[in-house]
Amino acid sequence: MMSMNNLFYSMQAWRLLNRGGRLLHLSPSQHIQKLSSRSNQLGFCQVLAAFTQIQRSYTERANYIHVEQDADIQDISILRFDRKPVNGLNKDFLIEMDMALEKLENNPSCRGVILTSAFPKIFSAGLDITEMYQKSHDYTNAFWRSLQNMWLRLYGSRLVTMAAINGHSPAGGCLIAMSCDLRVMASGPYTIGLNETLLGIVAPFWFMDTMKNTVGQRETEIALQLGKLYSPEEALEKGLVDILAADTEVVNVAKSHMVNWLKIPDHAREISKQMMRKKTLEKLRTRQDDDIAYFTNFIQKDSIQKSLGRYLQSLKKKK
Ligand code: CO8
Questions:
Q1: Minimal CA–CA distance to 181: which of 151, 152, 214, 207?
Q2: Atom 22, ligand 1: which residue's CA is nearest?
Q3: Average pLDDT over residues 209-213
Q4: Three-class SS string for 187-202?
Q5: Of 1, 64, 80, 251, which has the fewest CB atoms closer than 10 Å, so is most exposed?
Q6: Using an 8 Å Cβ cutoff, are 178 and 198 in contact?
Q7: pLDDT tens string 47-66
Q8: Residue 199's Cα: distance from chain center in Å?
């Protein structure tokens, strides 16, 4: 086992690197586990060198999430999705997003975050369907866990979270938007909703719960069965989004609302949010492994793979 001293220095090294603003692939405990299994005699410099190596190997991977501190409101950040062409949520994207949110949460001077897309017309096309198509059992498990972890982080975030939805937002894109505290959507020719049944698949219970908590039981029942994709105007009418704005104004409008939200003392707002969302979060937390097993078993059925294959083809045929 690694000595207590080395464990302490490992933690310091992790903090130093993390403070430097870099994204790390593993959690501190995972890093320490990895390092302690390699050697039980690591000194501070060796630990730091090993961390640097791990960090370097991570940043060589694609970078799909950009976070910047806002220039006007210092205690908020803007988090932009940047995975062309449609911000499809693959495993790396979801892990990066989870880590970026964790980093903001660990920064005591950060009080809010606005999620948006780095490019116009698409907020997110939802899960990258190729991640569910003809993949191994292990990969599918890991992919689903990355989605669960990102959602648990976002839905339970202590931060004020707002979605500036500057384009299409089906399925997983809609889940991300619904998990925020406030949604501002561009009033263009876009759609938002949980359209899973159109692909021949079924939205998991925690997608359903998130929608139910947003628009209520009756609307969710209809929307989920029909795989309904709402226009921005319909989404506003049903309460799926809160405000409409011009494409180029969604972030600014979200910022103007953020100012009001930040007037509320953080602790009171945070506790209220936790109390409202705790039951929904706990439901997934206590069933995470079962949910993964269910997903992998479901998605790998021949009939479901065929449906996904046909859907992927239909997306490509549009051209
Ligand atoms: N995954 C993978 N590839 C995609 C996806 C996607 N979700 N969406 C689009 N693409 C690809 C297209 O095939 C196309 O590829 P190529 O350039 O090779 O032809 C490229 O992205 C661009 O797509 P479009 O030309 O369609 O782009 P448009 O700007 O015209 O339209 C849309 C954008 C409206 C977003 C459109 O692409 C679309 O409708 N995409 C599908 C969205 C969708 O149905 N998402 C559902 C994902 S499933 C999910 O999120 C939850 C699953 C829960 C599973 C539970 C099981 C138990």
A1: 214
A2: 85
A3: 98
A4: CCCCCEECCHHHHCCC
A5: 1
A6: no
A7: 444 444 444 333 334 599 99
A8: 21
